[in-house]
């Protein structure tokens, strides 16, 4: 199982919220990225937490600097809207891009992007929680905007359009450190998804990883708070879950 | 010892990290398009994207000639991921496309049911067909980072440099033939081990 620190960024600072809301400053993205690299992270995810709200992306300069010293795969997301944005992200040293809002608005973008840059470059980021009808619904703009799209349908669509990986965040669990969203993971397992997944949201200790590790095969987990607040050390996780 | 590395920048995708890795190791390098003096002694074909798309950008133009010239001059040629796959006769990604035909064989999709594609992850890698004191033996069973859906099928097993497993599916992880070396994994994305492999390769050539 791949272990991927997820670094959310706002105005050049690493930040962390709860349920994708109410952010706290954690530190400098370069220092934090380098620390996780030295602690043997399998990959890194950098997310511009506010880009899609304001339609901009300030991450590229940070990525340019980071990738001079970090030699593991880097996924960049947040506010990427076009082939040009993707090209700029890759040109800054990113290996993969994560698309959410733009893909929901225009699913054809997934197709053209994967044909242009290779499907393994295109990660679709999904933020989801159960709605009042007890269905898993897709949200955009860091968990703010409901889309009316049901998770199962969306996952089918994005696979058809050629996404290479799925980053899936449980909005209700995100930042809580109370454990991964077991209901969601069980549903995903049942769906027999054909591309690798990155499960994000909720991890607070080693037991939480233990709880889900048998449900994931070629997938990954994304870790935020648990690493940022030093609740567990990345090396500890890597030693336990080789 | 390699003194001047040329990175062939065709097409799309992230080639900056390869440049960053080589710079970090202290070797002089540049993208082909930015090179003023073309006296390089190592040519790297990076690779992201599809076989068909990449060949359409290389075939029949200056870039293909650069590769063929390097081949004749016995300059070290390193293909990484798709860059390795392009060295073969043909590929089946998107559509049947002729490759550079520098190594005999073809590139086919991982043909094992129930395996997620692309194959993404760090895998222990085994090196074979190497001399006793080769630096490659130091990397036996080290983990390298892979991301691919297609694999090389070789006509001649002597050209196999490395293999790895995706669950119980064994695939070609590295190839070699005279001055050609190819890696299916990304050494430039495989942390300190990957950097060490690049470093040793450059110092021992």
Pick out its properties.
heterodimer; A: 242 residues; alpha/beta; TIM Barrel; eight-stranded parallel barrel; 11 helices; 29% strand; globular; B: 205 residues; nine-stranded mixed sheet; four-stranded mixed sheet; 22% helix
What's the layout of helices and strands?
The complex is a heterodimer of chains A (242) and B (205).
Chain A: E1 2-10, E2 13-18, E3 21-27, H1 29-38, E4 44-48, H2 51-54, H3 59-66, E5 74-77, H4 83-91, E6 96-99, H5 101-105, H6 108-117, E7 122-130, E8 136-140, E9 145-150, H7 151-160, E10 165-170, H8 182-190, E11 197-200, H9 206-212, E12 220-223, H10 225-228, H11 234-240
Parallel strand pairs in A: 1-4, 1-12, 4-5, 5-6, 6-7, 7-10, 10-11, 11-12
Antiparallel strand pairs in A: 1-2, 2-3, 7-8, 8-9
Helix pairs in contact in A: 1-3
Chain B: E1 4-7, H1 16-24, E2 28-31, E3 42-45, H2 51-58, H3 62-72, E4 76-80, H4 82-85, E5 88-91, E6 97-98, E7 103-109, E8 119-127, E9 142-148, E10 150-154, E11 160-166, E12 169-177, E13 180-183, H5 191-204
Parallel strand pairs in B: 1-2, 1-3, 3-4, 4-13, 5-7
Antiparallel strand pairs in B: 5-6, 7-10, 8-9, 8-11, 11-12, 12-13
Task: Report what the structure shows.
- An eight-stranded parallel barrel of chain A has the order 1-4-5-6-7-10-11-12, surrounded by five helices.
- In chain A, β8 (136-140) and β9 (145-150) form a beta hairpin.
- The longest helix of chain A is centred in the N-terminal third of the chain and has 10 residues, at 29-38.
- Chain A is 34% helix and 29% strand.
- Chain A has eleven helices and twelve strands.
- Chain B is an alpha/beta fold.
- Chain B has a single domain, classed as 3-Layer(aba) Sandwich (Rossmann fold), CATH 3.40.50.
- In chain B, β11 and β12 form a beta hairpin.
- Chain B is globular, with a radius of gyration of 16 Å.
Order of helices and strands of chain B: EHEEHHEHEEEEEEEEEH
Indicate the radius of gyration of chain B in whole angstroms.
16 Å
What is the total tally of β strands of chain A? 12
The top level CATH class name of chain B:
Alpha Beta
The spatial strand order of the largest sheet of chain B comes to 2-1-3-4-13-12-11-8-9
Average pLDDT of chain A works out at: 92
């Amino acid at each position: 199982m791949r272990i991927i620190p997820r670094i959310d960024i706002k105005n050049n600072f690493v930040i962390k919220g709860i349920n994708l809301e109410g952010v706290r400053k954690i530190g400098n993205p370069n220092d934090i990225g380098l620390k996780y690299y030295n602690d043997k992270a399998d990959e890194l995810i950098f997310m511009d937490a506010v880009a899609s709200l304001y339609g901009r992306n300030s991450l590229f300069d940070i990525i340019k600097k980071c990738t001079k010293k970090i030699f593991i795969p880097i996924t960049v997301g947040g506010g990427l809207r076009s082939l040009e944005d993707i090209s700029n992200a890759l040109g800054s040293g990113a290996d993969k891009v994560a698309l959410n809002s733009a893909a929901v608005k225009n699913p054809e973008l997934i197709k053209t992007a994967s044909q242009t840059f290779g499907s393994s470059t295109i990660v679709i980021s999904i933020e989801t929680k159960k709605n009042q009808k007890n269905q898993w619904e897709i949200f955009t703009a860091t968990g703010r905007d409901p889309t009316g799209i049901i998770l199962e349908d969306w996952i089918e669509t994005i696979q058809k359009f050629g996404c290479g990986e799925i980053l899936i965040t449980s909005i209700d669990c995100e930042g809580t450190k109370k454990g991964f969203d077991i209901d969601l993971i069980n549903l995903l397992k049942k769906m027999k998804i054909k591309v690798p997944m990155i499960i994000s949201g909720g991890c607070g200790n080693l037991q939480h990883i233990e709880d889900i590790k048998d449900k994931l095969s070629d997938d990954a987990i994304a870790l935020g708070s648990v690493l940022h607040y030093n609740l567990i050390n990345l090396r500890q996780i890597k030693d336990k879950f080789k | 010892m390699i003194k001047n590395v040329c990175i062939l920048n065709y097409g799309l995708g992230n080639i900056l990290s390869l440049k960053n890795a080589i710079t970090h190791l202290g070797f002089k390098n540049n993208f082909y398009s930015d090179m003023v003096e073309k006296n390089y002694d190592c040519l790297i074909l990076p690779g992201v994207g599809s076989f068909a798309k990449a060949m359409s950008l290389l075939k029949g133009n200056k870039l293909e000639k650069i590769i063929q010239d390097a081949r004749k001059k016995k300059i070290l040629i390193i293909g990484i991921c798709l860059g390795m796959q392009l060295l073969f006769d043909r590929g089946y990604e998107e559509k049947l496309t002729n490759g550079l035909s520098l190594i005999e064989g073809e590139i086919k999709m991982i043909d094992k049911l129930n395996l997620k594609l692309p194959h993404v992850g760090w895998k222990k890698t085994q090196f074979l067909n190497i001399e006793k004191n080769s630096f490659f033996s130091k990397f036996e069973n080290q983990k390298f980072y892979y991301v691919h859906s297609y694999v090389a099928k070789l006509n001649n097993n002597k050209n196999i440099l490395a293999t790895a497993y995706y669950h119980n599916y064994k695939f070609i992880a590295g190839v070699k033939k005279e001055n050609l070396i190819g890696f299916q994994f990304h050494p430039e994305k495989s942390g300190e081990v990957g950097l060490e492999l690049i470093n040793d390769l450059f110092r021992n050539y």
